[in-house]
Amino acid sequence: MERAQSLVQAAVAEATKRGWKMNVAVVDSNGDLVAFGRMDGAQLASIPISQHKARVAARYRRPTRAFEDAVQKFGLNYILSLDDATRGIPLVEGGKIIGAIGYSGGTGSQDEATCTAAAGAINM
């Protein structure tokens, strides 16, 4: 829980530095919520979206940007039929996925930049 909360704090610090308002969720390797943070002024609709993004990254065991790339770069449009095709970043330690972080509230690139900075504390 402490590590998960520190990741939320790191993501919030990055978003604050850039002037963005985000919701950040950290889940365990099964996709269950461990820590969550909603910045003042962040979109309320983005609360469940951030949690969903984290859960999908953990369960699919890959950065969910891979879904977007599959559609945009390779024309694999069937990916759009997946209910879970959203962005999140797995947290990898010692070669094993220990959870994931999801984020929502800004543009796709803002969301990703926020949590990539936080995930970097573990994904080394």
Characterise the protein shown here.
This protein is an alpha+beta fold and 124 residues long. The protein has a single domain, classed as Haem-degrading domain (Beta-Lactamase). 42% of the residues lie in helices and 21% in strands. The chain has helices at 2-18, 46-60, 65-72, 108-119; strands at residues 23-28, 33-38, 89-93, 96-104. It has a four-stranded antiparallel sheet. α1 packs across α4 (108-119). It starts with a helix and ends in a 5-residue tail after the last helix. 40% of the residues are buried. The mean pLDDT is 87.
Provide a brief overview of the structure:
The chain contains 4 helices and 4 strands. By secondary structure, it is α+β, with helices and mostly antiparallel strands.
CATH superfamily: Haem-degrading domain
Terminal Cα span? 20 Å
Number of helices, where a helix is a run of at least 4 consecutive DSSP H or I residues: 4
CATH architecture: 2-Layer Sandwich
The fold-level CATH name is Beta-Lactamase
Structural class: alpha+beta
